[in-house]
Each structure stands twice: as structure tokens, then as C-alpha cells.
Design a protein that fits this description.
This protein is α+β, with helices and mostly antiparallel strands and 99 residues long. It has one domain. Helices cover 24% and strands 32% of the residues. The chain is built from 2 helices and 5 strands, in the order E-E-E-E-E-H-H. The strands form 2 sheets. It has a 3-stranded antiparallel sheet with strand order 3-4-5. Strands 1-2 form a two-stranded antiparallel ribbon. It is globular, with a radius of gyration of 13 Å. It binds zinc ion (ZN). Zinc ion (ZN) binds next to loops.
């Protein structure tokens, strides 16, 4: 899937405990790593950020790898790369949904 030519989306989908997006209720049990370069993206760990593939909400993994919304404080602690990735993926999802 090509969301943006500059974002590398991994072939590996990590299996995760089933969790529900707190915004739209979409059930997820997998996550795919993305990055802006060729670095290997490891399996998600508690505290990592992610995005709901259904509604684009910015999320984070809790201690048990369930999902909750990113707070303003969480967003303030993201690296520039993490912020950019979430923005670009969210924008790509909106374009895909708009058809
Ligand atoms: Zn959602």
C-alpha cells in the first residue's frame, strides 16, 4: 500500500492482543511498522504511538498493548519524525477514504 512515497511501510504485521480504537470502535489485532528510512521497526512496545487505520485517531500502546488516545502531553513528547509520520499517515488515510 502506498500512502506516501517517502514513508516506508513494512511487510511485517505484528500480531497484537485484540484492542478497540477508543474513538471509532474499530477492532485491531495487528500493527505494521512505518518509518522514514530503512531502519527496522521493532514490534510495538508500551508507550509507542500508532494510528487507527479506520479513523486516523492518534493512539498509544498501553502496558498491556491495548490502545488509548494520545494526550496533549503525549503529543508534546513525540519526536519530530514520529509527529511527521502520524501526520502523513493520517493525511494518507483521509485521501484513501475520500476515494
Ligand atoms: Zn478509530
Amino acid at each position: 500500500m502506498a500512502i506516501s512515497s517517502q514513508i516506508k511501510i513494512r511487510d511485517t504485521a505484528y500480531e497484537l492482543p485484540r484492542s478497540v480504537c477508543p474513538k471509532c470502535g474499530h477492532e485491531m489485532d495487528r500493527a505494521t511498522g512505518v518509518s522514514l528510512d530503512d531502519e527496522v521497526v521493532p514490534k510495538p512496545e508500551p508507550g509507542d504511538s500508532t494510528i487507527c487505520i479506520s479513523c486516523g485517531e492518534w493512539l498509544k500502546f498501553n502496558g498491556d498493548l491495548s490502545l488509548s488516545r494520545l494526550t496533549e502531553e503525549d503529543i508534546g513528547m513525540l519526536s519530530d519524525e514520529q509527529f511527521l509520520l502520524l501526520q502523513r499517515i493520517g493525511s494518507g488515510l483521509r485521501k484513501i477514504k475520500a476515494g
